[in-house]
Amino acid sequence: MKKVSKKNNKQHIALISLISFILFLIISVLVSYNFFTQIDKNINIFVSKSTNQGFVQFNFIIGEIFSYFFITLLVLMILYSLIKKDKKIIFFSFALLLIYIILEIIKFTFGRIRPENIFEISYSYPSRHTVLSIVLVGFLVYLFLNKMHDWKKPILLVSISLMMIVSISRIFAGVHWFSDVFGGVAFGIFSLFFSIFIYEKMSRI
């Protein structure tokens, strides 16, 4: 029964990875053909009219806090993996670095301009914070959730909430279009589940 359950889990992981990758490709094509332009502008106008400068700065600070958290945790993970020689931590540390590099290549390839703001000057699509929040929090859940049986539901709830807060804050901060975050969610889910799928495959060798 356990072997059947593990096989089903791997199939689910592969399926989620495939669906999210296809979704990311569809969103990317639509972005390249300016399908979301009017939708993005309408959402951006609504957000700017519904918020004040203090709220915008607050949401930007959320993103900055996550950036420092990401860098600090990544460095700690690499140091820990080098000291303890933990294969799982090593794999996911380098997976994070590779995802970051691929993400920067995608952003440079699209070269999409951000909404007008005073905070960010790099390219917009897809949202880096959205992708990395999903991948980083997802990795942490995958690595440690099984060791905390009594806390599974609260941990999952908090993790999903963190992903959503970081992602939505990028729109409210005025540094991303809606479609940047939408594409970031799809690419983040793909990166997370594809990395887990590869690790599960490698761990069997």
Structural notes for this entry:
- The protein is an all-alpha fold.
- It is 80% helix and 0% strand.
- It has seven helices and no strands.
- The chain starts with a helix and ends with a helix.
- The mean pLDDT is 83.
Features:
single chain; 205 residues; mainly alpha
How many strands, which pairing sense, and closed or not: the largest β-sheet? Answer: none
Figure out the total of helices: 7
Query: SSE string, helix = H, strand = E?
Result: HHHHHHH
Structural class by helix and strand composition = mainly alpha
Mean pLDDT: 83
| Alpha-carbon distance between the two ends | 21 Å
> C-alpha Rg, in Å?
18 Å
- Poorly predicted regions are none
- Give the % helix: over 70%
Number of beta-strand segments: 0
The portion of residues forming beta strands comes to: under 5%
- Overall form: globular
Can you lay out the helices and strands and say which pair or pack?
Blueprint: H1 2-32, H2 37-50, H3 53-84, H4 87-110, H5 128-144, H6 152-172, H7 178-203
Helix pairs in contact: 1-7, 3-4, 3-5, 3-6, 4-5, 5-6, 5-7, 6-7
Outline:
The chain is an all-alpha fold and about 200 residues long. The protein is built from 7 helices and no strands.
